[in-house]
Amino acid sequence: MDLNTITEVVRPADAEAVKKWQSGYAWLAGGTWLFSEPQITTHTLVDIESFNWPSLVTTPEGLEIAATCKVIELNRYTPPPEWEAAGLFPKCCRAFLASFKIWNEATVGGNIVMSLPAGPMISLTAALEGVCKLWPRNGAPREVSVTDFVTGNHANVLAPGELLRLIFLPASALRKKYAFRRFTLTQLGRSEALLIGTLCPERGEFVLTVTASTLRPVQLRFENVPTAETLRSVLDQAVPFELYLDDVHGSPGHRQHLTYFFAEQIREELSA
Ligand SMILES: Cc1cc2nc3c(=O)[nH]c(=O)nc-3n(C[C@H](O)[C@H](O)[C@H](O)COP(=O)(O)OP(=O)(O)OC[C@H]3O[C@@H](n4cnc5c(N)ncnc54)[C@H](O)[C@@H]3O)c2cc1C
Asked: Cβ(33) to ligand 1 under 6 A?
């Protein structure tokens, strides 16, 4: 869509080149959301692709995913063989509404900053214990877990002009076993529920991450795989009914049902 409120698009060499942040400015990543609806309060787009951050950096400690990494690049990534949980990458990359049109341009960071319940890059990086590195306009870089980054439907902890620089996934999480469940009302539709469980092969720790059915990610940690009764009761406490999303893609009651159903399937799969 043509954005008729935009009067300027700037392509700075780095973030420091943006001297003053004004209301009406917006960082431009893949543009798949920015160009999908009127942006009546925005007059200047600041393109972050020109920063040329390396998309994916593999180290013994883990994987650094630049905010500007395209979803398609993550989908094509070849992980070290011991990173079993990297099997989640293609599953989550394909979990967009209208998938391929979006994933060719959308960035991992743009998806996380959108902070929509059905943000599959949020599901992925939250489940793999990701940590966001943020660059505030004035002040030292700060770190916040993906689970804490998203605070609600289309809401997060970013201050005006603050940049999401990268998401770090620790190798310890990437080595885990995983189970993935997702439901959409239509093929290639928006996720109604997306749950991921992980199991630490050394310590037996079980982590369940609930996304899409809830307004924000909810993560439950257990020292070992819990019983069905314990899992259900912890879920009940962690996810009050008001936290289930209500929109055209699913009612809160159906999302709650799917959450219980998939949580139990994941528990069974990872205890096998
Ligand atoms: C047909 C269609 C289907 C879609 N399906 C889904 C879906 O299933 N799930 C879903 O979650 N979304 C969906 N979207 C919304 C959107 O396309 C995605 O969330 C996409 O991942 C956004 O990434 P982007 O790089 O294109 O972000 P952009 O559109 O460039 O930016 C999105 C927002 O994030 C800000 N931003 C981007 N990068 C940064 C950064 N590094 N630091 C700070 N702020 C930043 C921008 O200023 C803007 O406010 C869909 C959109 C369309 C048009």
From this structure: yes
If we measure between CA atoms, which residue out of 171, 180, 158, 168 comes closest to residue 201? 171
Shared domain for 265 and 201, answered yes or no, is yes
2-54 per-position pLDDT tens digit: 889 999 999 999 999 998 999 999 999 999 999 999 999 999 999 999 999 99
Same domain, 85 and 181: no
CATH number for the domain including 230? 3.30.390.50
Query: Are 65 and 151 in a shared domain?
Result: yes
Q: Which of 85, 93, 77, 72 is nearest to 188 (CA)?
A: 93
Dihedral-angle region of residue 139 (phi above 0 means left; psi in -120 to 50 means alpha; beta otherwise) = left
99 pLDDT exceeds 70?
no
Q: pLDDT tens-digit profile of 196-223? A: 999 999 999 999 999 999 999 999 999 9
Going by CA atoms, what residue is nearest to atom 31 of ligand 1? 110
Distance 115 CA to ligand 1 centre (A): 9
Per-residue b or e along 23-59, where b marks 16 or more CB atoms closer than 10 Å to that residue's CB: eebebbbbbbbbeeeebeebbbbbebeebebebbeee
